[in-house]
Amino acid sequence: MGNVNIIGIDLAKRVFQLHGAGAEGTVLFRKKLSRSQFLKFLSKQPNCIVAMEACSTSHYWGREIVKLGHEVRLIPPIYVKPFVKRQKNDTTDAEAIAEAAVRPTMRFVAVKTADQQSHAMVFRTRELLVGQRTQLINALRGHLAEHGIVAAVGIVHFGKLVNAIEDEELPEIVRTMSRMFVDQISICSQKISMLNKTIRTYAAADQGAALLQTMPGVGPISAMAIKAFAPSMEEFKSGRDFAAWLGLVPRQHSSGGKERLGRASKMGQRDIRRLLITGAMSVVQWAGRKGTTAGSWLDRMMARKPLMLVAIALANKMARMIWAMLTRNEIYRDPVMIAT
Q1: How far is it, in rounded angstroms, from Cα 297 to Cα 314?
Q2: What pLDDT sits at residue 336?
């Protein structure tokens, strides 16, 4: 058996499929291993490239495999799919991963650190609790609407529903069930407040997050989401590449030398993209109330485009400026002030 150049691994919960290949692409072995056998087998292999699809567990395994001296390459699953030959199973998936990883133009995902994944868990937990609170409020709103009690949409109007629960004209069982909803909503709100405090503490202690918060539209949550979900900015050649990674650039339908650009591609990290668009919309709304510098980019865009389109375009510019700020370790500088 020749020297192993690359090992493609199809990950699973308990059983892993391995495909070993030489420098010429010749198949050297195909193995199915359990979790307990996995790292033991890799520790006995000569240092080589170990390729896996990027998924929830791949970053942990990537860190463990790097400790063994191997080079880890994580590939987005969508880039592996074209290399799968006909029948899809674990064996062909592992082979496709090995073949995709040696392509000279293949794009890879950086292995996340344990700290990055820890911060991501804080962010995801907060998102889950916010969603559960919204679900509970909507359910309570719907039940009370059946009894003629209606309040405006939004958490700020939740107090009106709480006060209306004590209306003695409501059936007793409705008031009892409504109090259960209120108790659960209060618990969610308390936990969300605790997580917000945790995120603000992390954001204040992190130098990169502190830099990002100097940009209008970027707060502690957005800053920590960028630190938790985005790889090092050195992984991107330009700010445009970072914006494309987020899915904020136009989708291309170009052919025959003629460029045709469509809507934002949305092919990227949806959490950061959503937060940047939300932050950009707040900047646009603030500019709509307070006014903008005459002749500035934002002033021209708001004069002829819908606000949502302006917000997405501004989020694209924010992504490019974030790349510049982090790569140069600089605070935000207003483009209008620089131009003048």
Answers
A1: 10
A2: 58
Question: What's the confidence (pLDDT) of residue 324?
Answer: 94
CA 291 – CA 284 distance, rounded (Å): 10
Residue 14 lies in a domain: yes
Regarding whether 40 and 70 lie in a shared domain, the answer is: yes
CA distance 15 to 98: 18
**pTM for the whole structure:** 0.83
Model pLDDT, residue 338: 41
C-alpha angle 310-124-215 in degrees, rounded to nearest 5: 40
Give residue 166's identity as a one-letter amino acid code.
E
CB atoms within 10 A of CB 236: 18
Q: Within 10 A of 258 (CB to CB), how many other CB atoms are there?
A: 7
* Stretches in the chain below the pLDDT threshold 70: 1-2, 336-340
How does pLDDT run across 103-161, given as a tens digit for each residue?
Answer: 999 999 999 999 999 999 999 999 999 999 999 999 999 999 998 888 888 888 888 88
Count Cα neighbours of 140 within 13 Å in the Cβ-side half-sphere: 32
Q: Are 315 and 309 in contact (CB under 8 A)?
A: no
Say if residues 91 and 30 touch (Cβ distance below 8 Å): yes
Q: Give the range of the structural domain holding residue 249, as residue numbers without chain letter.
A: 214-253+261-339
Contact 241, 220 (CB under 8 A): no
What is the reported pLDDT for 1? 52
118 lies in a domain?
Answer: yes
> Angle, nearest 10°, between helix axes 239-246 and 307-328?
130
Give domain status of residue 235, yes or no: yes
C-alpha 94: how far from its chain's center? 26
